[in-house]
Amino acid sequence: MHPQQKPVIGISIGDLNGIGPEIIIKAFSDHRILELCTPLIFASNKVINFYRKSVPDINFNYQSLKELNRVNHKQINVFNCWEEEVSISPGQLTETGGKYAVKSLIMAAQALKETKVHGLVTAPINKKNTQSDEFNFTGHTPYLKNLFGLNDVVMLMVAQNLRVALVTEHIPISQVSQTITREGILSKLNIIYNSLIKDFGIDKPKIAVLVLNPHSGDDGLIGKEEEEVIKPAIKDAKHNMLVSGPFSADAFFARRHYARFDAVLAMYHDQGLIPFKSLAIGEGVNYTAGLPVVRTSPDHGTAFDIAGKNEADVSSFLTALYECLDIINRRSGWAENHKNPLKKMTSVIMANAVDEKIEENTENEP
C-alpha cells in the first residue's frame, strides 16, 4: 500500500438478524470516516436497504459492486456476496442468518488474504447457527488461523492500554486444564511479545501471566498446573522477554496491577474477559494477534434482544475500526524502520559511484 493511499477496510456483515448491519450503517453514516479509509462491506444491497429503513434520519449512501477491482475511494462500497432474496428476521436465531454471515465472512477473509483489502473488521456472528461442513469453527479466530495455515494465533482484547490475551478460548471449563501446556503458553507469549512490538509500537513490552487455580494452587493443594506447567513456561520465556507471574487473577485486577504491564495472559475465557469487559466499558476490541494481516472486531455479540430496534451502541465497532487502521499504520511504520539499512546504503553508494579510471602502463611496451 502506498503511504498516501487510504486503506481499504473490509467489513463482514455478521449475523443478518443481529445488530451487525445496524452498527455498520450507523458507523459509516459519518462520512468523515471516508477521509481515513475506504469501507468495503461484504453483504448485499437488499440486506443493507432493509436495515437502513430501521435507522432513520441518517445519511447513508453507498456504491454497489459486483467486482472488487471497482472500489470507489470516495464512497462506501457494498460488495454483493449474493443476489437471491434472503429472509431477514431481526432478533431471531435462524439458520439463514448464520449461513449468510458465514458467506460474508468467507468472501471478506479471502479478499484480505489476497490483499484486495488492507484490513478486516468483523461484525458479530453466533456460534450456534454458523456450524456446517463448510464452517466447522467456534468463531472468527480459529477460522482465520486455519485460513492462513498457522499453528497458533492469539485472541487479544484491547482497550487503550489494557490488553488481555487468552491461552484457551471457546472451550468448556472442564477441558481447560488439559488444554493448557507449557509449549502452548510459550507460543502465546511469543505471539503477544512480537505483536506488542510490531502492532502496538512498544519497544520493550512487559507481560503478566495469570494462574489457573485459586490462590495459585496453594502449593499444589488445590491444583498443580502452576508448579508443573505455568511457572516453567514463564521461566523459559524470561530468556527472551520481560514476563512476570503467575498472578492470582482476583487480586491482580482488583489492585490494578494490570496498569504496570503492556499485556496480560489469562488462562481461560471468562478469567480474562469478565474483568476486561468490566474495565473497557463497551469500547473493547477483539484483535487476532499473530496473523500476517489485520483483523479486529467489536467485543460484543449479536445482541438479538435489541436487533432491529435502533438501540445498538456503535462505540465498540468504531473503536474496532480505528484500532484496525492504527495497527495497519504501526505495522507499516515498523516495517519501514526495520528495512535492511545496508540495502539502502548500497543503492545510494552505487547511484553516486564513479568508475575508477585505470590507465594502462605502456612504458615497457616494445
Quick summary of this structure?
The protein has helices spanning 20-28, 45-52, 95-113, 140-147, 176-179, 182-198, 225-237, 249-254, 269-280, 315-337, 341-352, and strands spanning 8-12, 38-43, 62-65, 76-80, 119-122, 154-159, 162-166, 206-210, 242-247, 263-266, 285-289, 295-298. With 366 residues, it is of the alpha/beta class. Strands 3-4-2-1-5-12-11-6-7-10-8-9 form a 12-stranded mixed sheet, with helices on both faces.
Summarize the structure in words.
This protein has 366 residues and is an alpha/beta fold. Helix content is 36%, strand content 16%. The chain has eleven helices and twelve strands. It has helices spanning 20-28, 45-52, 95-113, 140-147, 176-179, 182-198, 225-237, 249-254, 269-280, 315-337, 341-352; strands spanning 8-12, 38-43, 62-65, 76-80, 119-122, 154-159, 162-166, 206-210, 242-247, 263-266, 285-289, 295-298. A twelve-stranded mixed β-sheet has the order 3-4-2-1-5-12-11-6-7-10-8-9, sandwiched between helices. Strand 1 (8-12), helix 1 and strand 2 form a beta-alpha-beta unit. Helix 6 (182-198) runs parallel beside helix 7.
